[in-house]
Amino acid sequence: MNSELTRREFIEKMKLATLASMGTGLVSSSLFNACSPAKKTASTADCVVLLWMAGGMAHTETFDPKIYTPFRKGMESKSVISTFKSIPTALDGIHFSEGLEGLASILNKGTMIRSYRAADLGFILHTRHQYHWHTCYQPPQNVQPPHIGAWIAGELGSKNGVIPPFIDIGQRFTVGEGEELKAFHSAGFLGSEHAPFIIPDPAQGLDSISPPPGMDSLRFERRQQLLKDLIDQSPLKHAHGDQKDSYIRSMERSYALLKSPEAKAFDLRFEPKEIYDQYNTGRFGLGCLMARRLVEHGARFISVTTEYEPFLGWDTHENGHSRLIKMKELIDRPITLLINELDQKGLLDRTLVILASEFSRDMLTEGRPGSNVKDQVDVPKIIKQAKHYGMHRHFTDGCSMMMWGGGIKKGHVIGQTAAERPFSATTEPIVIDQVHQTIYHSLGIVPETHRVVEGRPIYTTPDGHGEVIEGIFGN
Amino acid sequence: MTKRNFWLFLINVLVILMIRARDQSIALHREDPELVNIVSKVKKQPTLLHLEQLNLKIRAIWTNKCFSCHSSEKMKADLALDTYEGVLAGGKDGEILIKGHAAKSDIIRRLKLPKGHREAMPSKGEPLTPLQINAIALWIDHGAIWAESSGKLFYEAPLSLYKPKIPPSTSGITHPIDLLVDEYFRKQSKTRWPVLINDIQFIRRVYLDVTGLLPLPEEVELFIADPDPQKRNALITKLLARNEDYTLHWLSFWNDLLRNDYSGPGFITEGRKQISSWLYESLNQDSAYTSMVKSLIHPNPESEGFIQGIAWRGEVNSSQSTEMQAAQNVAQSLLGLNLKCASCHNSFVNNVSLAQSYGFANIFAQKPMEIHRCDAPTGQFAQSQFIYPQLGLIKADSLDDRLVELAAFITKPENGRLYRTMVNRIWHQLFGRGLVANLDDMDQKPWSQEVLDYLAAEFRDQGTSIKGLLQHILTSNTYQLSAQDYDGEENLFSKPFIFKGPGLRKLHAEQVADAISQCIQPMYEGSAFDPENKQLPAFWIWHHYKKFDRTVLPDPGTIYLRKSFIIKNITKIQSAKIIATADHSLKVYLNGTEIIQSQDYRKFRAQDISTLLKSGRNILAVEAGNDGEIAKPAGVLLHARIISEGKDTLHIYSDATWKTTDSLSSTSWTTAGFNDRRWRPAHRYSSYLQSPWGKLIKFNLDGYHQDKLLRASLVKIDPLQLALGRPTRENVTTKRSEEPGLLQSITLNNHPLLHLRIKEGAEIWFSKFLTNPDDLITHLYKSLLIRLPNPAEKKIMQQYLVPYNASSIEDVIWSLIVSPEFQFL
User: Is A208 exposed, middle or buried (0-12, 13-18, 19+ CB in 10 A)?
Assistant: First the structure.
């Protein structure tokens, strides 16, 4: 590392790097590597959509079904395997769980990973596992690591200079564990410049990128002119230097952004009603619709979540079976539409879409088989009530993940889990470092990418670890 | 006992005896293993590197044993051992050493004299150990090589302070800081001082720096009119005496530094504890910094949150254990030393080794810590050791005693690093750049060692009053130099740096919010921390919303609540009052009569209800609405108090004894005759003290605090303050980002809360200056920019204020608030 490189040169380099990447789809490694040979890798994607199944999605009830064991009063807990029937998918011999017919029909457009192993953090705390998934670092950390979206925003910037690069849809922070959620919906040490644009309700997404409520565009323009006139007339004008100038420039840029026609990307009212209605299975469905619009308008990283709220969503501590019927209704149609529409519009080739969850669930095993993790869920030995029928414990040893587009192989399956309990990953185990490096790789962001924080290099993944998942790109 | 066991027993006894014997010798002459090591290295291979390492070791001994008399600041017997020149020059008795001839060197002779001898050294305290004396002799024999910090990979600032000589007063310059800076300017071949700021700039700057507030227009006028040449110093004294304002401003600095916050990860599992009350009291009383440091390291229940760190449930990387967090945070915050590298492996940003980090962390540990290298166990266990053992060796066995030892060592006057680090942080706050640029690496060189060490020594010798330090700096002309842009922030922190005056500073999030609260409209109503700790057993209640048997946030819509109570004798009532609020809206009925209506949880007022009460059963009924499109926090907060003769007081609080419904079957629900048997108990979504709305400080029946300004430093971080640069305090933050980011400027352009407050404020300003836009313009300038508008500005404003209404006033206020003149200091 060249310590003589001043910060200013640095920032210039960053701008150049960003410009270069915008033009060519190539990314130089981080600016701090100015002295090392610039490694470049060709990208296969320009943007990423993360569909987040918050709360722990049971693989055996969704993308990796096992033998169907229908509910019977008095059945033993250990005899419960999958609580849904299996359905065929677009791939011969591969089955999904009932209720995911749409997603089954598009498996030929992407890759399914059946062997993701979540970290075993010694105690299941959803937000801690989610923090790990999204930042690749286990909390706590003595510097705050950025969300993967913030890294991508920081490295690549906006595609068109208008739409914020990192947009985070669907999570409210007023729910339980809200503070823990905030801890990773953050740009960390990259600074608020790369922080997510947070849109809890896609129906109101436009608000965050519009003039203030109740201000028409004429008045907004007039107000901006007033500010400009006053700055021009200020007796301190001659005292302006770089710092004030860049502040003024930043104010002007944000004004331009708020006035920009591109902001319409956030306005779902521009969608034809039939499309809107098809997506609208709830906030998650509308989030998928907004994600598609944002992909079209230049965002880099969009996260849409089913939303984490303790004991709700995928976090089934009881009524697992009946609640999963609803969850599948929530996700199946909009995700299928999103993939198909991106495909039809020719955008899927350069858009990587990922479906993932912090871990899986099982009826019996908490954490990993054999690990000593405190049990948090009451599962009776004999099931007498329907509410005990489902996957209620948190399982980390085998989880499903889907990827479509952005150079990812089509109609491909990676890894498998055991046919018998515990349903652990048995081949090609995949860990989070690999998932992150795979995503970065698709965008042309090299594993050496890092920032120097308090004198230490901090990489996108811990010490830059993680190989790109073997054989996931291609065809 | 078998034969084998007997031998084992015997060996044990022998080992114990040997250990005892060794312990005794250690107690007398505890030798530093590193010194043993380096002495043997020099004996085998007297390379330059080894000799320099030996020299550094010897200087560490001198720091501990000799500097209390023979340093540049003390100069007893005209001898200073802290510089090579001083060592070679010797003292009033002549040279202390002859290079290459230890036997002929006076220092060795004196060190070897028996304790109590007139010429024995050191004259106070324990003599040096034989090894230490031998090491010094060895060093002299090999030529008394002086290491210019090259013995270690990284430069290390000397631990002790030296008191630079203050140049004599010249041409009206009398303040010691100014005299040192004057000398600095001369060295930089600057003959003239840059201009000082005028009275208006001064009053704004000093107000914002001491209290975080803007001066009121009346105060500005009085100050400018004041002919007293000492008025600036008088104002500084006056402002520092405003304890509450001072405390509430500097609280943010300390919260950042000590990683203290009112919300954030960890609290949910009780893995984290606030130190807010302790901190507030310490600042309010201007406790000596050394006492604060002692309370942080050897804490009381109110201050223990600092070294306790943040514990997340589950297994944690060994470099993030709470003990290691304590070591890292104490090192960073208090000593300007980065231990984060060295908590995984030997550091590559400074000289700290993995073993040293663990040794330091081990002081805070209940059980001995196993050293982990990059999270892998090494099988070795840490020995408690302070990073700077020359200040003292940790010997105690119990955790509590170790902390007492550490607290004593770290606050020793010899530990210049402690004082330098704080002085440098305060300097950074006031000048936008520290004397040492990197506030967390006090081994870097300052732009003026003289100013840094002078101030640190002054701070230490004057009893470590933070206010005293502030006063000393603020009264210097150096502080009153005009702000420099330094051609942008990136140059401000680059090397080489040439000081020309304070750097331009961006107002902090709290200062912006407080200025708006002061001049336009209170930004916040609910505090997260209440220094007065007022209690109220009321809850924010709502109809219980459930999904799958789990409590969830309330959906949008209208709900109804009822509470009945009995009054025995209406004639005995002396007073009856009620206060109520809700997010988002409410109507309150008493016995069928509407008594309160509100659309804004911040707006509430105590009301008399005595005329509506009756003997027997009374009914309070509330209709409340949750607005918006998606489920979100909602609540009703209510307190009624009915005082009767004979001290018989009835309190009614919003709590779980209320009944609720979300569907109404009859219009008579507000009256006593209605049957609410089918209604459900209200759900207590949050308490008065802890709620999404904060603790509403004005919510009381007796009119307390109605005019109180709730400072942003007491409020939980919100998206607005986050965007304006207030840090989330999961980690120590010593320097806030001042880069203008897009997110920040978008926030200034369209943040709903900012927009709402300006809008509300504009209506008030409009009502005050209904027909007089010129007066409004003048007053706005005076309040927000602390000056009058110039004619051109006035004209622009006048033109904009046609038509003259609340909306145009709102835009004018906004333009002043986001103007660079307001945003920068």
Answer: buried
Closest C-alpha to B410, from B466, B337, B338: B337
Rounded average pLDDT over B673-683: 94
What SS3 class is residue A268?
Answer: helix
How far is it, in rounded angstroms, from Cα B561 to Cα A288? 38
Q: How confident is the model at residue B6 (pLDDT cuts 50, 70, 90)?
A: low
Instruction: Work out the mean pLDDT of chain A and round it to a whole number.
Output: 89
Q: In the block, which residue shows the tokens 């040449």? A: B229
What the block records as the tokens of B473 is: 């700096």
d(CA B245, CA B255): 16
- Interatomic CA distance for residues B82 and B159, integer angstroms: 10
* Partners of residue B549 in chain A, C-beta under 8 Å: 318-319
Residue B15 phi, psi dihedral angles, 5° rounding: -60, -45
**Whether B814 contacts chain A with CB within 8 A:** yes
For residue B326, what is the nearest residue in chain A, using CA coordinates? A142
Q: How far apart (Å, rounded) are the C-alpha atoms in residues B468 and B457?
A: 13
Contact A142 B328 (CB under 8 A): yes
Q: What percent of chain B has pLDDT over 70?
A: 93
Res B72: pLDDT = 67
Residues making up chain B, counted from first to last: 825
Task: State how far the Cα of A55 lies from the Cα of A358, in Å rounded to an integer.
Answer: 7
Q: Has the ipTM of the complex gone over 0.90?
A: no
Cβ atoms of B733 and B257 closer than 8 Å:
yes
Mutate to test the interface with B, among A132, A138, A143, A192 (most CBs of B within 10 A): A192
Q: Is B821 on the interface with A (CB under 8 A)?
A: yes
Contact A6 B629 (CB under 8 A): no
d(CA B491, CA A1): 20
Strand pairing class (B557-567; B616-626): antiparallel
pLDDT of residue B10: 53
User: Which residue in the set A123, A234, A241 is minimally distant from B821, CB to CB?
Assistant: A234
CA distances from A1 to A31, A32, B152, B179, B683 (A): 10, 7, 21, 40, 59
What contacts B147, CB < 8 A, 6 or more positions away? B51, B52, B53, B55, B56
A212 secondary structure, DSSP code? S
pLDDT, one tens digit per residue, over B523-548 is 999 999 999 999 999 999 999 999 88
Q: Are strands A197-199 and A166-169 parallel, antiparallel or unpaired?
A: parallel
Judge whether B805 is closer than 8 Å to chain A, CB to CB: no
User: Which one, of B718, B696, B709, lies nearest residue B539 by Cα?
Assistant: B696
Number of residues assigned to chain A? 475
What confidence tens digit (pLDDT) does each residue in B708-741 have? Answer: 999 999 999 999 999 999 999 999 999 998 777 7
Q: Does B819 touch chain A (CB under 8 A)?
A: yes
Q: Are B251 and B485 in contact (CB under 8 A)?
A: no
Q: Give the pLDDT confidence of B429-464 residue by residue, as tens digits.
A: 999 999 999 999 999 999 999 999 999 999 999 999
Q: At a CB cut-off of 8 Å and minimum separation 6, what does B286 contact?
A: B243, B465, B466, B467, B468
The overall pTM is greater than 0.90: no
Q: How confident is the model at residue A25 (pLDDT cuts 50, 70, 90)?
A: very low
Q: Cα(B103)–Cα(A49) distance, rounded to whole angstroms?
A: 78
